[in-house]
Amino acid sequence: MVQKLIKGHTMFGRFLLIVSLSLRMANSMPPDKQAPIHIIRARSIDLNNAHGLAMETRLDKVVEPTFYRLDLEPYLEDALFKGHVAINITWLKDSNELNVHCAHEIEILESEVKAQFPDRKELQEITIDTSTMDPKKPIITLSLKKTVPKGSTGVLKFSFKGNMETGSTEAFFKTTYMTDQEIERTVAATQLRPNNARRMFPCFDEPGYKTPFELSVVRPKNMIALSNVPVARTEKIPDEPDAVCDHFEKTPPMSTFTLGLVIADLKQLGESDTYKDDIGNEIELRVWGRPEYLEALEGVNEKLMRVFKELAQFWQVPLPLRRLDVVALPNYQGVKPADNWGLIVFRESDLSSRGYFQLTQELSYQWLGAFTTPAWWSDAHLNKALVGYIAAATAFKINDGSEMEGKWPLTVLYSLYYEFSKRYPHSRITGMKQETACTKIELLFRMFNYTLGNDTFKKGLQRFLESRKFKTFSGDDIWNALNTAALEDNKIPKEVDIKTVAKSWINKDRLPLINVRRQYDSKTALVTQKLYLRDRPHDVPEAAKMSWWVPIVVVQEDTLDLKNIKPAIWMKDNKELKVSSMPDKDKFIVVNPEEIAPYPVNYDQENWILLSNFLQSDKRQQMPELTRAKLLHDAWNLAYAGELSFATAFNMTLFLKNERHHLVWDPVFTMIDHLGRQICQCLQGKFQAYVRILLSPLYEELAKDEKEDEEPWKKNLRSFTKSFLCKAGYKPCVREAQEHYNIWMQAKNPDEGNPLANQYICPVFRWGTQKEWEFGLQRVINFPSSRKQSERTYLLKTLAGCPETEAKIVKILNVTMLEGNGNFSETDMFLIFSMLTGSSAGYTTLFHFLSNNWDVLKERYSSRTNLWDNLITSATSAFTTEEGLDLVSHLYVTHQGEFGSAEHIIEKSMRNIREEVTWSAENLPVIDAWLEKYLADNKGKDNQFYQH
């Protein structure tokens, strides 16, 4: 622990004296030529933010900074700091006023303005009339005695003090940690993204102001200080033997948020590595951590060198840095690393993890984000999207994306399909809008990499970076650079413009559906586009007017190696076009293989049959696994959306009995879950039998060769398969769960904890006895406050959501709603309702419970409008059949005028159910017929399962 060297009041007096003398002695020297001020040495962007920042008021363009000289003195023990900043500025217009960013918690001690007018040689002091802090904005306004003419240069100086952040690791913060020897250590560091520099010193805190910095900082002798650039010199401090002052070299021009500083008890991991290449990079790479954590960081040096080499070769634009420090900082709690230029600060666990993706992502920001910077926060999502794409592509190049189980981009792509196919995207979570917009742009970069070719794509991005280094950029800069490269390499027709293509995707929170109808006799195909919607009704305003610029990439049965994936044609903003050169009628085609662009594809019935037959043949693996997954995913989702017969969709799953690649299975579990929630209770038995027959061979094969060190994808695939089979009543799984559960039931003090994994609870509650379920209910009722409430929440969720027998569901509703058991809160009841809507048995039982106990429930809960409204919603909104509509309509008529605050809710429920009834009338007979035939063809394969 750094000890107090000087008493506070004495030190503060000396601080003011030295600052005052320094200001008087500065005379006409510009700040980059002045000797640094010696301050008395002390005592021992996420995207949601970016969305808000885009609305921020910009500073008036009266002056622009050209250089910063920043001197900092942190008082680590007291979490205070003092400092002085001198900013070289140039006047862009005549003005007698200056505006500078400064957080309200920063106290300005002294300020000074000097200017050199265009017609004079000497600097003159400009008297400050008033210094005013805007009460609502972090802006300080200096009103000057005289007007300074345009073209003048000068210096703006502030002496200031402030408090280090201790409740979070942002801005200029202090945190502590305990060593293995139980000794408390202090850490001071910065996280200035997105606009936290103003919380450390007065500055022009906007990304467009890129200037060099010279930083000096006082630190305890027994700690080290790291910043964006190496230390130029270290000075002793008179009368303070335990502290020194580090003066860092001048930085390249950079935005304020990329300024970085770490003061901590750190040790370097191994020796430095130097990366050098023939394009001008020569940079020392170092890894730092606390001494006792270095062992956990073994191998990071090699990873850092590998990733840096890949990125340097990708960009082909050398970084203007001599050194890059990567730090595993103890007790750093930032959501994301602090990716300062030349200094990246990670959480310890993030840097010691085995994967490459996050390290690649943060190193990418050294080029894209620091070297060139988004001109304003409205372009931050574009920056993140390009970094995300490059990081994923690089991680795949290094180790096939093993930390993502090879699933990128499926994981982000599927969520995008589901969100943008809603009638009201982002209606529940508004913050999701920025993330999905970023994900869509990331997939656009992937699309351009495929359609332009990797070499042309890289060439365009390299040209973009070269033209914008030390500057800012907008989206147009990227699109125009890609377009120029594409035209030069003849990769796009002249009428196609990359910017126009990109905007057609970015400006809509939607995705297209491409319909392909082959005309077999003429060997052509008619291609049309429309808005892709899963939610019903399909009544989105302006849907008919929406169109996209779409690359139509077609592969045929004999070109599945995807060596030639140039678009056959670009579908402009028109709705229809004809593609020629189709194969013979006995050969299939695939449009948009490998999910080259984010859109699903529907075909005519004949082509779907050809695809299904091929996938069931021995030639299946000639088709890449991502394309196999796409066909499966598209078929089921198009059927769900009402665009394709479910008979076709189910036929597309027949090949799965021989399929073992985890990427192909990835969408299956989501599809089972979605359809299981959608179909009526009358088909649940048949559907569950289909699921059992589908999954059993895969699980039995995976269960044979379970190993400790097997690939994560295999563990996850086994876990998913087992979970769904357990839900479907797989006897070995249920018996295993009951054996573990019985240990808990035999425990002397069962409320002290549940000695079994969560995976065993749901199968017991679904397929086990009423006694086992009642035991679980008592554990929730008697749950001690000393245990983690998350364990109680999970137990309650499974008690309500897993059973499909009416008796169990009615019992929990009786206990919570009618008996008024005081152990259940209103939040608990919300959770129970939510879980019951997940299955037809659940919401049907909840409906009958409401209907049978109407008078009591209305009297007890109708005045508690949130709970009452939620009950009516959960009990009435999930039906999908004519029988369900009759039930809800009868309830409405019987109790008309009695619903109170929920009147509009049940009316809305009936409107929605009518839409679902239409869907069910069209699809349930098809599903029923297909399942009947499938089960008849697979008799005798279902004896390993319990059945309701």
From TrEMBL:
<feature type="signal peptide">
    <location>
        <begin position="1"/>
        <end position="28"/>
    </location>
</feature>
<protein>
    <recommendedName>
        <fullName>Aminopeptidase</fullName>
        <ecNumber>3.4.11.-</ecNumber>
    </recommendedName>
</protein>
<dbReference type="GO" id="GO:0005737">
    <property type="term" value="C:cytoplasm"/>
</dbReference>
<keyword id="KW-0031">Aminopeptidase</keyword>
<dbReference type="InterPro" id="IPR034016">
    <property type="entry name" value="M1_APN-typ"/>
</dbReference>
<keyword id="KW-0449">Lipoprotein</keyword>
<dbReference type="GO" id="GO:0005615">
    <property type="term" value="C:extracellular space"/>
</dbReference>
<keyword id="KW-0479">Metal-binding</keyword>
<feature type="domain" description="ERAP1-like C-terminal">
    <location>
        <begin position="588"/>
        <end position="914"/>
    </location>
</feature>
<dbReference type="Pfam" id="PF11838">
    <property type="entry name" value="ERAP1_C"/>
</dbReference>
<dbReference type="InterPro" id="IPR045357">
    <property type="entry name" value="Aminopeptidase_N-like_N"/>
</dbReference>
<dbReference type="GO" id="GO:0008270">
    <property type="term" value="F:zinc ion binding"/>
</dbReference>
<feature type="domain" description="Peptidase M1 membrane alanine aminopeptidase">
    <location>
        <begin position="302"/>
        <end position="505"/>
    </location>
</feature>
<dbReference type="GO" id="GO:0098552">
    <property type="term" value="C:side of membrane"/>
</dbReference>
<keyword id="KW-0336">GPI-anchor</keyword>
<dbReference type="InterPro" id="IPR050344">
    <property type="entry name" value="Peptidase_M1_aminopeptidases"/>
</dbReference>
<dbReference type="InterPro" id="IPR027268">
    <property type="entry name" value="Peptidase_M4/M1_CTD_sf"/>
</dbReference>
<dbReference type="InterPro" id="IPR014782">
    <property type="entry name" value="Peptidase_M1_dom"/>
</dbReference>
<feature type="active site" description="Proton acceptor">
    <location>
        <position position="362"/>
    </location>
</feature>
<dbReference type="InterPro" id="IPR024571">
    <property type="entry name" value="ERAP1-like_C_dom"/>
</dbReference>
<feature type="domain" description="Aminopeptidase N-like N-terminal">
    <location>
        <begin position="65"/>
        <end position="257"/>
    </location>
</feature>
<dbReference type="GO" id="GO:0006508">
    <property type="term" value="P:proteolysis"/>
</dbReference>
<keyword id="KW-0378">Hydrolase</keyword>
<keyword id="KW-0862">Zinc</keyword>
<dbReference type="InterPro" id="IPR001930">
    <property type="entry name" value="Peptidase_M1"/>
</dbReference>
<dbReference type="GO" id="GO:0004177">
    <property type="term" value="F:aminopeptidase activity"/>
</dbReference>
<keyword id="KW-0325">Glycoprotein</keyword>
<dbReference type="Pfam" id="PF01433">
    <property type="entry name" value="Peptidase_M1"/>
</dbReference>
<comment type="similarity">
    <text>Belongs to the peptidase M1 family.</text>
</comment>
<keyword id="KW-0732">Signal</keyword>
<keyword id="KW-0645">Protease</keyword>
<dbReference type="InterPro" id="IPR042097">
    <property type="entry name" value="Aminopeptidase_N-like_N_sf"/>
</dbReference>
<dbReference type="Pfam" id="PF17900">
    <property type="entry name" value="Peptidase_M1_N"/>
</dbReference>
<keyword id="KW-0472">Membrane</keyword>
<dbReference type="GO" id="GO:0008237">
    <property type="term" value="F:metallopeptidase activity"/>
</dbReference>
<keyword id="KW-0482">Metalloprotease</keyword>
<dbReference type="GO" id="GO:0005886">
    <property type="term" value="C:plasma membrane"/>
</dbReference>
